[in-house]
Sequence to fold (235 residues):
Amino acid sequence: MSTVQTIMTPNPVTIGAEARIWEAANLMLDHGISGLPVTDEAGQLAGVISESDFLLRGELHTDPAKSFWQRLFSTRGALAEDYSKAFGRKVGEVMSSPAVTIGAEEAVGAAALLMAERNIKRLPVVADDKVVGVLTRSDIMRSMIKEMAARSVERIDADIRRALEGELDHQRWGDNITVHVKEAIVTLEGKVLDLREKTAARVAAENTLGVIQVIDNVQVAMLPDMPVPPPGFYP
Fold:
């Protein structure tokens, strides 16, 4: 199974907590991304700002109005935080914190499960408390498709090898041929005593279903030259 660092986007675009929210919006639009890791002065991850943080804003008159009972049972701090997120001008006032993160050495499956459980689209990837990458749902989808394709190729290679070895086993001349298959490319190896055996092995490989190329490394072992008899040897 792949690890997060093998499929993440390294050296991600980040933004400081003291930056203005319009700067974050422009960065996301310019780079075609849906969120940004937010770093503090030490370069460590402070939070994440995403498209969803721009939806419930005072400018849009979409800041959530709380009912009497919600206001009654909400703490003063929680109400103050909601106000800051709706009307704040700095990234640090609007971002989600603490950020949900994943380690660079974690398995891709663990990252996918975390995204599903938290219903998030992007994960900052951290190593030694520093942001080293970003993992998105698209990254995971590409990894999954690549792995599925690789498994299909492995099955095809196994089928080709099995079919060709079966054909060679049925031929009296095929017992000295070794078959290797990778990505539907067949490599033939071994030693034979007759050039015609080498040719026949290549023909068998070329006629095996699914083969796209044959690399013929079969060697023809020539018999040593017979010594010339001395004069008068024959009567």
Remarks:
- The first strand starts at residue 9 and ends at 10.
- The mean pLDDT is 87.
- Helices lie at 4-7, 21-31, 68-73, 76-87, 91-94, 108-118, 137-169, 195-206.
